[in-house]
Amino acid sequence: MEARADVTTPPRAGRVPAWVLGAVPLALIAIALGAFALLGGPGLGERRGPPVEELAVERTVLEPGRIDLTVRNDGPDEVTLAQVIVNDGFADFSTTDRELAHLDTAKVSINYHWVEGNAYELQLLTSTGATIAHEIPVAVQTPDTDLGFYGLMGLLGFYVGIVPVTLGMLWLPFVRRIDPRWVRVLMALTVGLLAFLAIDATLEGIDVAAEGSQALGGASLVFLGGLTSYLVLSGVEAWLQGRRRKAPADVGGAHVAMLVAIAIGLHNLGEGLAIGSAYAVGALALGAFLVIGFALHNTTEGLAIVAPVAQRPPSLRRLALFGLIAGAPAILGAWIGASAFNASLAAFLLGAGAGAIVQVVQQLAPSIRDHTGRMLNPASVAGILAGFAVLYVTSLLISL
Amino acid sequence: MLAALAPALGAGAVARLGGVDLGAAPARAEQHQHGAPTAPDTHGHGTVPDHPGFQAGARVDHAANGFHPTELLRDFDHGRTRRLASGRTMRQWELIAVDKEIEVAPGVKFPAWTYNGRIPAPTLRAREGERLRIRFGNGSEHPHTVHFHGIHPAAMDGVPGIGAGVIAPGKSVTYEFDAEPFGLHLYHCHVTPLAEHIARGMYGAFIVDPREPRPDADELVMVMNGFDTNFDLSNEVYAVNTVGFAYMDEPVRVRRNQLVRIYLVNVLEFDPINSLHIHANFFHYYPTGTSLEPVEYTDTIMQCQGQRGILELRFPHEGQFMFHAHQSEFAQLGWMGLFEVVA
């Protein structure tokens, strides 16, 4: 009875501003947690077992006579770095911070006359005697990040990003002239290309994440990045549709092309990251073959952008903008990858690329329906498979 | 395609240490001052190391360890003696097993098991033919024994299942036997797992002097050991007398042309052999010290675990002379020191 009376009575809380009602539980939580912490977790007792010590080496820089590591405490307990062993010998070092709390980072600068081409096994010895191993497979001096270096990375990004994508977009006149049925096949080809890129980016992201800090998320960052970009692009898409309803319907597939360009741009950002970081650790020979491989590979991305606008091609300026959006991130990626590579960030960005692609594939999907409305018809399946095949074959040319 | 890049991307590494039941006293929270030399750095090594060593300026807190490697060198424990009715000498010692944290490299604490709180354990020194009585009390959380190398009855062998067998925590036992043969021996815990009971620090030198004493000399004890600080069955730190590079930071002082006698024992666990090389000099080597005639005149000798021998040499030149394991890995991981020869 009382309960019913409560329901029917006008809410007494109406006199109190809503935000106060929202803030009260927050404040109580803060007070409770504060008291709990101050009292040292009453009733929980001492922790059992020795401390769990984990360090992730996030970055390795080799300078003449010096090896610099950026380490992050990846574990729950504080880690005190005591000594450093390089290839079975103690080494002199300095560090910005010897005692690392959870997620703290420190730079460890090791005095060591390393030799180019040698492999080195580093062991960070903690105060409890635990060792954290870090391998340098091939020692190569880390390039100085001066203007010339940024120029070189920019040129590389230009070669593998902007040039091939723009060249690929030159298929537009051809796409315009062919039969609409063939356009559907081309769209299916685009879907195939994109699906391949999404799978590739996801796998690579998971690989990269394994090398970064696990405490910061590890492989889950890939999926977090994917979901984030998928949702953001869906939001953008909804916003574009809203605008289109107000404006005269002259944009056609342009907004789809824009989304494809953004997705491919995110993908190329990841590609640039990989190229830049490989170059920084000396694992990349900047040869003509590499550039040719990437160029062939990325040319198909240009086709993916223009296929949706075959019916109503947008202005040249707009096309150029698409090319830039899709290709230029390769330059940015190369810069970041070579100068400030961070595995956790790279994993997130690669995931974001994959998520963007999924969103775009969803946009493109209706355009591959045949007259019966079936999405997976013989023509579209052939197109998708052809897309896989094209990227698989061209990826073989990229022997990183 | 880009997955092929993975090994090149930062090549990070994460190691996890868990599940190590140390059973020893919990880690002391205090951390000694890093970089503040506790032993006087009389030789003024600069900040750039010109020889292998730990982080420049970092020193072990010997006071916290309770022993100093330089003092261990010449620390011989003759025990308490009394004359028996038969006219023989009865020599007695007391050994207590203690779990204790030992700093084996600057900033690196090892949860050790010790006799009398030090590694190596006291160098017990007797004379051939004496009656020896060693009372062993187990103050550790783990079962232990004391097993002596020498000639003695089975019940006095300090191994599980024979005589008093394993000595449980809180229990004690007295081992009694004759000091024979003369030579350089050792003693250690013999409870399984053997490798762990030895590698945790339960060992010491045991010297039986011949009836006719050896010639007067500056006598040094060097126990070659190592520490598996991460319990992966291989050593992270190598040393003589426990603290890595201790005699690099504080060289062993000897007099020019004086006879130097080194009692060298190898107890290194996990590695099959150990070795010693002395720079710019040669020594006479008496394996196990059981003969008064040297068998070799050399500058490098090799010992497996439990092997030991006496070295005799004179330094004709003043200055600093290195000595180290002639296994570069051991040398660079701490087993390296200096003699400083003075007039």
Structure explained in plain terms:
- The complex is a heterodimer of chains A (400) and B (343).
- Chain A is α+β, with helices and mostly antiparallel strands and 400 residues long.
- Chain A contains 12 helices and 8 strands.
- Chain A is 56% helix and 13% strand.
- In chain A, strands 1, 2, 3, 4, 5, 6, 7 and 8 form an 8-stranded antiparallel sheet that branches.
- The radius of gyration of chain A is 27 Å and the shape is globular.
- Chain A starts with a helix and ends with a helix.
- Mean pLDDT of chain A is 83; it is low at 1-7.
- Chain B is mainly beta.
- Helices cover 7% and strands 39% of the residues of chain B.
- Chain B starts with 61 loop residues before the first helix and ends with a strand.
- Chains A and B meet through strand 1, strand 3, strand 4, strand 7 and strand 8 of A and strand 4 and helix 5 of B.
Summarize the SSE layout with pairings.
The complex is a heterodimer of chains A (400) and B (343).
Chain A: H1 2-8, H2 18-38, E1 55-63, E2 66-73, E3 79-86, E4 90-95, E5 99-100, E6 105-111, E7 120-126, E8 131-136, H3 147-169, H4 172-177, H5 180-211, H6 220-246, H7 254-280, H8 288-306, H9 316-327, H10 329-339, H11 343-364, H12 378-396
Antiparallel strand pairs in A: 1-2, 2-6, 3-4, 3-5, 3-7, 4-6, 7-8
Chain B: H1 62-65, H2 69-73, E1 76-77, E2 80-83, E3 89-105, E4 108-115, E5 121-127, E6 131-138, E7 147-148, E8 172-178, E9 183-188, H3 194-199, E10 203-209, E11 218-227, E12 237-240, H4 246-249, E13 252-255, E14 259-266, E15 273-278, E16 283-287, E17 296-298, E18 300-304, E19 308-314, E20 319-324, H5 328-332, E21 336-342
Parallel strand pairs in B: 1-5, 3-6, 5-10, 11-14, 13-21
Antiparallel strand pairs in B: 2-3, 3-4, 6-8, 7-9, 9-10, 11-12, 14-19, 15-18, 15-20, 16-17, 16-19, 20-21
